[in-house]
Amino acid sequence: MKQITILVLFSFYSLVVSSQKTSSINIGFGYPGFFQANFDKNSGGSHTINSGRIHVFTEIRQLIRFKNNPAFLVTPGIGYFLFNESESSGALGGGSSTILKHYAVSLYAKLNYSITKDNEKPFCWYAGVLGGFYVFSKTKGEMYWWMYQQGGSRSGIEEIDKSGKSFYNNFYNGIYAGFKIKTGKNDFFRPAFEFSFFPGYANITDKFLSDTNKDEPIAKSMGMISLTLGFGKKKATQVNE
After folding, report:
1. Which of 34, 158, 187, 239 is the most buried (most CB within 10 A)?
2. Backbone CA torsion sign across 150, 87, 43, 214
């Protein structure tokens, strides 16, 4: 609870500060992915996170700058995640097919370290750590099932509409590295490419992943490639020069 309070106050402070100064924001799109294509491959079934997944985010480029060149920056942001999960299995007695959408909104903060020292170079390399929490999450979808028995077969559809907490953890953290491309003297527009890693990011529920052969959530790590578009310039609050 203490961590949530600190992050909420931090995010509120960032919005107040940014509204009083010239806009300087990052807007970006990320393509996340897990390191296992089919969670059911050993059983012959199919359980995947489909290609329809995305992370959309916006950030205040530098709320606080601790030192110059190389620079330590604090970058708060807000992001939207969407994952499409599908699972199907069957045997002689019947089977099921499930399609789910997991979506969430999170607040996060980055501690960014600018590696590049020479301002004349066309690329600015950076790396850092980040942490965040979810202010909203939801899971929606449906499960279609069928079974064979004497006298015929039965089938049905179950609608799913619940909290996304079974998929998303309350908190997440990660590491990242990337490079910015300088576009001119004023540097009003600066694109960047970023690579990030999130350990134990989401929970996949599948008995074939569990050592106990039960449907229980197993935390899975995730990687992500992002394209960020930076706009504007802002003089950051300097804490320690």
Report:
1. 34
2. negative
Prior bond of 70 cis (ω within 30°): yes
What is the distance between the alpha carbons of residues 54 and 152, in angstroms, rounded to a whole number? 42
pLDDT of 115-160, one tens digit each? 776 566 677 889 999 999 999 999 999 999 888 877 777 888 999 9
- Enter the pTM of the model: 0.77
User: What is the longest distance spanned by two Cα atoms in the chain?
Assistant: 81
* Closest by CA position to 100, among listed 157, 143, 45, 135: 143
Domain assignment present for 41:
no
Buried b (16+ CB within 10 A) or exposed e, 186-205: eeeebebebebebeebbbbb
The boundaries of the domain holding residue 29 are 2-34+51-83+101-137+163-238
> How does DSSP classify residue 52?
-
Q: What is the 3-state secondary structure (H, E, C) of 94-107?
A: EEEEEEEEEEEEEE
117, containing H or E segment = none
Residues shown for the chain: 241
